[in-house]
Amino acid sequence: MRALAEVRGAAGRTRAVAAAVRIGLANKEDAEVIEERIRAAEAAGSPLALW
């Protein structure tokens, strides 16, 4: 659960996740690699934590 809102907003997060999936599918990557891409896209939009 995130304590703070994402800095991109809901639409930006959706676009980032969709791009991660499209890139993974275009590269014929397996589901595990695509999941890693999705997690990286989500982490990139998270604000820096102070704790």
Q: Nutshell version of this structure?
A:
The chain is mainly α. 63% of the residues lie in helices and 0% in strands.
Strand element count? 0
Q: Assign the structural class, choosing from mainly alpha, mainly beta, alpha/beta, alpha+beta, or little secondary structure.
A: mainly alpha
**Biggest sheet overview:** none
Number of helices: 2
Cα end-to-end separation: 15 Å
Query: Which percent bin holds the helix content?
Result: 55-70%
Average pLDDT rating = 82
User: What low-confidence regions span 5 or more consecutive residues with pLDDT below 50?
Assistant: none
Radius of gyration: 12 Å
Quaternary structure: single chain
- Globally, the shape reads elongated
Question: What is the domain total for the residues?
Answer: 1
Beta-strand fraction estimate: under 5%
Helix-strand topology string: HH
Written description of the protein model:
It is a single chain. The protein has one domain (9-44). It has helices at 9-26, 31-44. It is mainly alpha-helical and 51 residues long. It contains two helices and no strands. α1 (9-26) packs antiparallel against α2.
